[in-house]
Write a structure and sequence with these properties.
single chain; two-stranded parallel sheet; 2 helices; 26% helix
């Protein structure tokens, strides 16, 4: 399952499917693409902040970088 805000519209979901196809994902039709977060044990997200009970400061938030930004 892929959770993305792009799936809010059918055009956005189609764009995600096209990208999957272009990347060579053979069974891309079998993947659910949604903008609704389903209950799960684990989410994989490149922009996530793990909440451990203490809210981050404004400086921590502004200094946050996703994994791909190093």
């Amino acid at each position: 399952m892929i959770l993305t805000t792009r799936a809010h519209s059918s055009a956005g979901a189609s764009a995600v499917r096209a990208w999957l196809r272009d990347q060579g994902l053979v069974d891309w039709r079998e993947i659910t693409i949604t903008d609704r977060k389903p209950p799960a044990t684990l989410y994989v997200d490149d922009r996530a902040w793990r909440f451990g009970g203490i809210f981050p400061t404004a400086a921590e938030i502004s200094g946050f970088r996703p994994w791909r930004a190093g």
